[in-house]
Amino acid sequence: MSQLRDDRDDMLFLWFALLVLIFVVIPALYAAHKGSVNAPLVWLASIQLRVFAPFSEEVRTILERLTEVEPAALTWEQVRGLLRYAGSWMRWPLALLLLLCGCTAIFIGRVGRLVRHFSMKSLLKNNAESFPCLRPVVGRGKYLLSPKSYDSGLWRIARTPVQFALEQELLLNENGEAFTPEQALHNGLADTELPAWGNARLDEDKALAAFQAQLGKPFENYTAMTACRRALAAAFLAYADGDKKGCVAVLDAVSSSYREKRDRATCPVLEQKNFHLNLNRIWERHQSVLSEKSLRIHAAFELPWFMALLCRARKKGVLASSQFLWLRPLDRPLWYALNQCGGRTAWVESLAPWAHYKAEEQAGQALTEPHVALAVTSLKDSLSAQGWLTDIFIPPMFEQSFTPAVEQAEPVSDMVYAAAENDPEYDANDDPSLAEEHY
To answer: Per-residue pLDDT tens for 92-113?
Structure first.
């Protein structure tokens, strides 16, 4: 109880001291130093009034009187009146300034609402609304950039020559046994300390069989293709015949439909009847392109035929591989066959289509038998250049033979020879058919 009384007494004392300060001390100090207090206030009022002196006779009169008055002779009420009068003039430009600041704030606020901030993930997702071809990779950044995607999954990276050779068991040791990946690679990279480095021999017969299988099935007709290949064939054919919007519409429809679930890629639109009816109409509408020689000479196998169709379509404009990213998890062999079109180096996963395509180009006709010996040679040269193959290969001898040496073998029959650089590069600026088109 006594504590509360003491607190109340302290509060009353503070209030009393404050009243004494306001009504006694401050007035006394002002009276003692009136000139020092009034002088800056009068100077401030005169500075404000000088702005309006050119516009008012009354203001000019007051300024003249202020020059005659001693600041110490003015009372506090007179100083307050002078400041209030100066403020009555200053309020108008200040009000205009506040109005301008308000308008600026409103404008900046409206512009600010139009500015959006994105992270890498949200930017990709937002761009996919305008560019459906990005949808297959939206939300998969962590997987696509992780070590997990190197050697597994739908989006695993392209195989190197040595990875391909090891997976196909094409690299043999001195006893004719296939090297395992553990004997050649460490974390997917070559290791010179492992036994396969510099001691491997390429099983060329098995490599030839592997590339013949890589070439894929023969080209029959449009209806015999898989659903995703029919969609791609119709789109490329439309683009080759000048219907660019129709091509992009088909590719974007499949991109927007792309789904992944439990390590399985699907595009539900490829199963819709109306979508396939539209593909059939596109295919029938642009049949004239199929009769061109650039396509007829590659009509033996599907992969080289698709390569030829894409090259033909690109004569009409840019058709990047990014337009059909969905193809990579759905049809990996076709993806790499198309991705290498226009380049000078082939993926090892599509060496066979590349070799057969080049053979048909040189022969000028469709070749119904696989011509992939050049793929074996390219693989061997690549492995040798990287240091995997031993310089001298002596196969194991299980029994001694005194058979005389056989004359040098004839070249492989499926190799096609032609003069180098007899097929000049295509230049769209010199194409008369493009000059007649109007967009």
So the answer is: 888 888 999 888 888 877 766 7
